[in-house]
Design brief:
By secondary structure, this protein is an alpha/beta fold. The chain is 32% helix and 20% strand. Strands 5-4-1-9-10-11 form a six-stranded parallel β-sheet, with helices on both faces. Strands 7-6-8 form a three-stranded antiparallel β-sheet, covered by helices on one side. It has a two-stranded antiparallel ribbon with strand order 2-3. The two termini are 15 Å apart. Bound molecules: 2'-O-acetyl adenosine-5-diphosphoribose. The site of 2'-O-acetyl adenosine-5-diphosphoribose has 26 residues, from helix 1.
Length: 240
């Protein structure tokens, strides 16, 4: 039984944004215009065909500007948990969208970067970027042209905030993974790491059992927009 002061660590993946209208990576065969996602989201792909990679992310960035794409009940429930739970709540997301923030979540750890930021390969500056990126885009910090790339983590690159995440994995007393297929590491290995510390209860909330479902103590299968608010209500009922 978790105490109301216990630290909670939540990991989200593309499944939490699916009901907001953003496609998951591995649904529908995981292909984009005939390319495997893993073949588009790499530094090698960007070196070989920058226009193709920019277009892949431009299409995703454009979705964030679409007024029909909004946070759903699962994002909102997690924001409510952060605001209400007496203990620390850490949200680590693999998602590069900003739907957690738009739902009111204050502290979001984006381990795979953020779609609404551009990174300059000439001066390393990161800038807020809401429009398209292409070879004519100019870095607002150093004025280099054609050096901007999406500030996202590609396959073969190191995810962000791993030190903070390692501390939270060791300290949490409840670990919950939501809407993630459990095939991309290091995130897929977080549950095993938490179990190795032996402190926490672990719960998976996903449409179907993930690749690492057997490592969790508990699994709940169904849509995040229904199961996440129900789970948050259960927890908050203990706060009184
Ligand atoms: P995936 O597309 O691999 O998996 C999404 C998971 O969400 C699947 O297991 C679905 O069953 C589940 N799902 C779909 N709809 C759902 C719903 N409404 N409610 C609950 N679950 C639902 O996405 P991720 O696991 O996030 O990385 O992918 C991990 C990483 O692979 C991404 O961050 C990205 C990608 O390539 C990089 O680009 C580095």
């Amino acid at each position: 039984m978790i105490e109301p002061e216990a630290p909670i660590l939540i990991l989200t993946g593309a499944g939490i944004s699916a009901e907001s209208g953003l496609a998951t990576f591995r649904g529908g065969g995981g292909l984009w215009e005939g390319h495997r996602v893993e073949d588009v989201a790499t530094p090698e792909a960007f070196a070989r065909n920058p226009a193709l990679v920019q277009r892949f992310y431009n299409l995703r960035r454009a979705q964030l500007r679409d007024p029909a794409i909004r946070p759903n009940a699962a994002h909102r429930a997690l924001a409510k948990l952060e605001a209400t739970w007496p203990g620390p709540v850490t949200l680590v997301t693999q998602n590069i969208d900003d739907l957690h923030e738009r739902a009111g979540h204050r502290d979001v750890v984006h381990m795979h970067g953020a779609l609404n930021q551009a990174a300059c390969t000439a001066c390393d500056a990161e800038t807020s970027w809401l429009g398209d990126l292409d070879e004519s885009s100019r870095c607002p910090a150093c004025a280099a042209v054609g050096a901007l790339r999406p500030a996202v983590v590609w396959f073969g690159e190191i995810p962000q905030h791993l030190d903070r995440i390692a501390r939270e994995l060791a300290a949490c007393e409840l670990f919950v993974a939501i809407g993630t297929s459990g095939v991309v590491y290091p995130a897929a290995g977080f549950v095993a790491e938490v179990r190795a510390h032996g402190l926490a209860h672990t719960l998976e909330i996903n449409l179907e059992p993930s690749s690492v479902h057997s490592v969790f103590h508990e699994g709940r299968q169904g849509a995040a927009s229904t199961l996440v608010p129900a789970w948050v209500d259960e927890l908050l009922a203990r706060v009184g």
